[in-house]
């Protein structure tokens, strides 16, 4: 996330360049943009000497989302919970649905890649943005 601040002519400089997407975006002071900055090479174009440009950057590590998806347990804790739930089910006290949910948390790398790809689908494409104007 970037929040753009400063006193500059956003049509003459300070644009955000997203290299892999081959896109240059004009961002005026006060604009906010969300993009996966760890995955896209980016830079700002120079502004005029008498102008100034600042930005506030927000970053969220992907592991925080993973921790949320794991019900705020480490994978080791989830594995222990699975063992406990299997034992509880064997004794007639467990919950099969809960066990299945726990097993989904400890997924394969392939499932993780699928989830990562799903995250990309949350972002708009250039065509979608152009159509919405």
UniProtKB/TrEMBL annotation:
Domain of life of the source: Eukaryota
Name of the protein described by the UniProt record: Uncharacterized protein
Species this chain originates from: Botryobasidium botryosum (strain FD-172 SS1)
């Amino acid at each position: 996330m970037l929040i753009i601040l400063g006193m500059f002519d956003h049509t003459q400089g300070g644009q955000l360049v997203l290299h892999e997407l081959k896109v240059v975006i004009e961002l005026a002071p006060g604009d906010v943009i969300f993009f996966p900055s760890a995955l896209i090479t980016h830079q700002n174009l120079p502004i005029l000497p008498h102008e100034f440009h600042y930005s506030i950057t927000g970053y969220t590590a992907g592991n925080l989302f993973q921790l949320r998806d794991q019900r705020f347990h480490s994978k080791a804790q989830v594995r222990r919970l699975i063992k406990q739930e299997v034992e509880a089910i064997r004794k007639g006290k467990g919950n099969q649905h809960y066990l299945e949910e726990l097993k989904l948390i400890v997924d394969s790398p392939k499932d993780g890649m699928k989830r990562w790809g799903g995250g990309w689908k949350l972002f708009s494409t250039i065509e979608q943005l152009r159509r919405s104007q």
